[in-house]
Structures are given as structure tokens and as C-alpha cells.
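Structure in, sequence out. Go:
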């Protein structure tokens, strides 16, 4: 650190001794930490007035290092904004806007954003939700999935759609189902296929058709062959691709307790003091 009054300083890492940094919360492996960057102006105090016990208590904006957003125009914003290092040209930001009618929480990650939630996550959105993924999306649900859509659902897949079901698939439609394929529909079953209709069932191709209804069975075609040669058509068969597995989120280590909780009961304090004395450990004053 380079002091303003230190004319002999070289403005490098050897100009002063290493300084401790005051923060709002500091535990053993946990707390809040935001290190000053090179070039920042800091506020320094000295423990017991000793210059050899310097302590950084905060950072200061000034004319060369301006605030992230102009003031007083953005006086209702609370901001935590970083700068990519080294070189800049990027940032992470948490911004809270409290202007009446324009309240907003804005979060920007310059590169990756990882979340680890050890139990439940609950999200409520009062109006609309818009999600845009510029590349691939990977989702894995290791339990059940329950989803309810109250209004119409519109889904568009602009390339191929692959679905693999490990056991049974049940679909119930209240009114009609309409499927249209540009080239081929192939239904294949390892055991049986049952098509059932309450009043009418029709197979139609190239001007010929078979119709089953309450009046009977109708076969219409230029030529009807029964046990007179020919071969069945062949379908392409189903070849669904399996999805890729998602990448797990980043993790972090838990902090450590700095000390045991204080003993509040007078009797327990005496008992704890006697226990420390017998064990040879130094006594702690209450």
C-alpha cells in the first residue's frame, strides 16, 4: 500500500508491510471478504496509534475512481459490482433498484453461475417468466416430476424430437388428437397393437380404403387380393437418442466454529472452570 505522505515509497508490493482488512463479518473459513484492488484509495487506521499496526477500514470513491452509476440520478440504487481481473473488460454485479414503481433486483454473471441448494427451492412469479438459453440445456430429475399447465400449451421443436420411456406411457385426451407427418408414421409393437373406435375405423391409402362401422366392413380398391402374393410394407423403426447428463454445480467448503458457545449458568461456569483446572487447561474468564 502506498501512503500519500510516503514520498520514498515505490508504489509496489514492497512499499509497506501487509495490512489487515476490516470487514463486517469474519469467522474461521466463513464470513464476508472483498479485497481492495490495485489503484483503489483506502481508508487506514492505526491500532493504538501505532503506524506499524495499520488496518484498512474501507475504500473511497474519488474523481479518478467514480461510482458505478451517476449520482444523484441513481441515488435509489444499491450496487455490488466487480471488475474482471486482470485486464478488466468484464464484471459481476448485484444491483438493487428501490425507485418507487421501478423496483428491481438485477444479477449479472460475467461467465458461470453455480447454485447449490441442500434442501428445497420454491419460486413464485406473479406475472410472466421468460427464459432464453443460447446453447444447450441439460436437466436431470432423480425423483418424480409433476407439472400442471392451466391454459393452452404451445411447444415447437424445430429439429428432431427424441423420447425414451423406460416403462409405460399413458396419454388421455379429452377431445381430439390430430397427428400429421410429412413422410411416414410407423407404429411397432413387440406383442400386439389394438386400434379401437366407438363408431368408425378407417384405413385409407392411394385411393383404396377399409372402413369398419356399425353397418359392416367396406373394402374399396381397384383390385382386392386375398392370399394372392404381395408383401407388407416396412417402416423405418424408432431410434431415439438418449439425453446427455447435466454438469453438477460448483461446491465450497464449510467454515469452522471459532469457539464453543459461552456457558451462561453460574453453576455450569464453575463446573467448566474446575474441569479445565483438573485437565491443566488455562481457565477462561466469564
Amino acid at each position: 500500500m502506498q501512503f500519500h505522505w510516503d514520498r520514498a515509497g515505490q508504489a509496489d508490493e514492497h512499499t509497506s508491510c501487509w495490512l489487515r482488512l476490516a470487514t463486517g463479518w469474519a469467522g474461521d473459513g466463513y464470513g464476508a471478504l472483498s479485497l481492495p484492488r490495485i489503484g483503489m484509495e483506502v481508508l487506514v487506521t492505526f491500532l493504538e496509534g501505532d503506524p506499524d499496526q495499520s488496518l484498512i477500514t474501507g475504500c473511497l470513491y474519488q474523481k479518478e475512481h467514480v461510482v458505478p452509476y451517476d449520482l444523484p440520478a441513481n441515488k435509489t440504487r444499491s450496487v455490488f459490482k466487480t471488475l474482471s481481473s486482470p485486464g478488466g473488460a468484464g464484471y459481476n454485479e448485484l444491483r438493487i433498484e428501490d425507485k418507487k414503481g421501478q423496483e428491481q433486483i438485477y444479477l449479472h454473471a460475467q461467465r458461470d453461475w453455480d447454485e447449490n441448494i441442500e434442501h428445497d427451492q420454491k419460486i413464485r412469479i406473479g406475472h410472466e417468466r421468460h427464459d432464453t438459453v443460447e446453447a444447450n440445456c441439460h436437466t436431470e430429475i432423480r425423483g418424480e416430476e409433476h407439472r400442471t399447465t392451466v391454459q393452452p400449451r404451445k411447444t415447437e421443436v424445430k429439429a428432431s424430437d427424441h423420447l425414451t420411456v423406460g416403462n409405460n406411457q399413458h396419454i388421455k385426451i379429452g377431445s381430439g388428437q390430430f397427428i400429421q407427418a410429412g413422410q411416414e408414421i410407423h407404429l411397432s409393437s413387440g406383442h400386439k397393437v389394438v386400434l379401437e373406435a366407438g363408431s368408425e375405423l378407417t384405413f385409407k391409402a392411394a385411393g383404396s380404403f377399409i372402413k369398419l362401422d356399425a353397418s359392416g366392413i367396406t373394402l374399396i380398391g381397384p383390385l382386392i387380393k386375398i392370399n394372392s402374393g404381395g408383401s407388407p410394407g416396412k417402416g423405418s423403426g424408432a431410434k431415439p437418442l438418449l439425453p446427455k447428463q447435466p454438469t453438477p454445480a460448483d461446491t465450497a467448503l464449510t467454515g469452522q466454529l471459532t469457539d464453543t458457545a459461552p456457558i451462561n449458568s453460574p453453576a455450569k461456569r464453575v463446573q467448566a472452570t474446575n474441569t479445565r483446572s483438573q485437565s491443566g487447561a488455562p481457565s477462561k474468564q466469564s
